[in-house]
Amino acid sequence: MPLPCDTEIVDGSLLLRPWRSDDAGALEAAVVESIDSLGRWLPWCRAGYDLAAARDWVRRCEQGWADGEHFAFGIFDPTRQRLLGSVGLNQRNPLHRSANLGYWVRQSEQRRGVATKAVRLAARFGFRHLGLQRIEVVALPDNQASRRTAERAGARFEAIARHRILDHGQPKDAAVYALVPGDLEPA
Ligand SMILES: CC(C)(COP(=O)(O)OP(=O)(O)OC[C@H]1O[C@@H](n2cnc3c(N)ncnc32)[C@H](O)[C@@H]1OP(=O)(O)O)[C@@H](O)C(=O)NCCC(=O)NCCS
Predict the structure, then answer these.
(1) Would 175 be classed as within a structural domain?
(2) Could you report the per-residue pLDDT of 137-171, keeping only the tens digit for each?
(3) How far is the centre of ligand 1, averaged over its atoms, from the C-alpha of 148 (Å)?
(4) Residue range of the domain that includes 57
């Protein structure tokens, strides 16, 4: 059964909520400021990213929630309502109750613990509300920021998996981390 699109997670310094159509302008601004640090790892983040691309992302996220397949949250500062980044559960596998977790944080807000907290909040949502029993984080081996974030959030390194992801169209080996529910306790 699909979850409501008004799901909100508030935890002290962060607010996670599904993307809304009126977020598109803030999303465009966050991506445009972050091309230097995100573009190497996220192929869609490149010069020319515009409001139409942001609107398209929000539309696809709304559809993902409606279909019960992709659960993408914007990460916000609850006091300033400023967009900090994104975290989401995708590639949901109902048979094995697993999913993949992806994230990014806008350049001006990096290295303040945002991703670590957001990963834990999104993973807890996945275990409690989607019934997941395994959440994977997959990163290119030299993406130290992503790997360290997974580790800080409590995920365990499992393997370098061959040809696990396409990076700018090329098959690449990748570091696979996983969280299972017990990894998040105690909170
Ligand atoms: C990965 C990313 C989300 C981290 O966001 P963040 O909010 O800066 O992360 P945190 O502040 O929670 O830091 C988590 C850990 O990563 C480390 N870290 C963050 N940025 C780093 C960098 N550029 N190089 C090395 N380590 C880094 C932090 O020091 C911290 O580790 P520590 O506690 O041992 O010091 C951010 O760098 C980003 O958006 N990168 C581009 C997108 C991306 O690669 N997404 C993941 C795809 S798999």
Answers:
(1) yes
(2) 999 999 999 999 999 999 999 999 999 999 888 99
(3) 6
(4) 9-184
